[in-house]
Amino acid sequence: MVRLDGPLGSRLQDSGHPVSAPAWSARVLRSAPQAISALHREYAALGCDVHRANTFRCTRRACGDDWAELARLAVQLARAEAKPGQRVAGSLGPLEDCYRPDLAPVDAFDEHLEAARVVAEGVDLLICETFPHAGEAVETVRAAVATGRETWVSFTAGPDATLLTAAQVGAAAQACVTAGARAVLVNCIAAELTSPYVRALAGCGVPFGAYANTATWNGAETSVARYGELAAEWRALGAKLIGGCCGASPEHLRAAWGDAP
């Protein structure tokens, strides 16, 4: 099993750092990079196998003229805290809102390629994550693959699982595998609603997994013990990549990993 890290954005927000749109957690690269380093350090000590650099919103569209410098800084922060044998993943997200598939741009390959080339400079792999729109996900995977880096992709149906059906995620994941993705995942869906989406990934022919939110929109938090039970369901379905998304704590990660090999 590959132990994925937990969230950066929600934990930075919980610590009082401003993470408003459009830059979201990338804002903290300017204001408090040491807070990002501290989270990477915590995940490294926890035993995460893969650290996602805080590059999710590091694009020209979201951050302006210094976007590339911010992306390189985010990768440096993750790399500095990762322990030997732990991999650093560059995160590539939707160009607009990960909960607004209607805003997904058409023909976004060149814009995604611009970001992917910069992020790829210092990472071990690229993860195209939190995509609610199949077409943009495929374009981003194509851009990531063009850098020569190993590429993963992860889809979201939103915290309440209303943006995509499990069947739609399965079809989108297969299209991304055809485009060169070497692992497929789901994330940013409430943990209680994630299992059908994990099941939909099982036939894609590549490793698959999940890193879930701990709540629906305005819903009750999933307990550490319950998160562990749900992650055990994902592993029973064949998931090999397990972590946490919005709201997940280090304790949630420990519970999710369980005693799986």
Structure overview:
- The chain has 261 residues and is of the alpha/beta class.
- It has a single domain, classed as Homocysteine-binding-like domain (TIM Barrel, Alpha-Beta Barrel), CATH 3.20.20.330.
- It has eleven helices and eight strands.
- The chain has helices at residues 9-14, 27-31, 33-46, 60-63, 67-81, 109-120, 134-146, 166-178, 195-201, 224-236, 250-257, and strands at residues 2-3, 50-52, 87-92, 125-131, 150-155, 183-190, 208-213, 241-244.
- It has an eight-stranded parallel beta sheet with strand order 1-8-7-6-5-4-3-2.
- Helix 7 (134-146) runs parallel beside helix 8 (166-178), helix 8 (166-178) runs parallel beside helix 9 (195-201) and helix 10 runs parallel beside helix 11.
- It is globular.
- Helical fraction equals 40-55%
- Strand coverage percent: 15-25%
The CATH homologous superfamily corresponds to Homocysteine-binding-like domain
User: Looking at the structure, what is the overall shape?
Assistant: globular
The count of β-strands is 8
CATH class: Alpha Beta
> Mind telling me the C-alpha Rg?
16 Å
Q: How many domain modules?
A: 1
The N- and C-terminal alpha carbons lie at a distance of: 6 Å
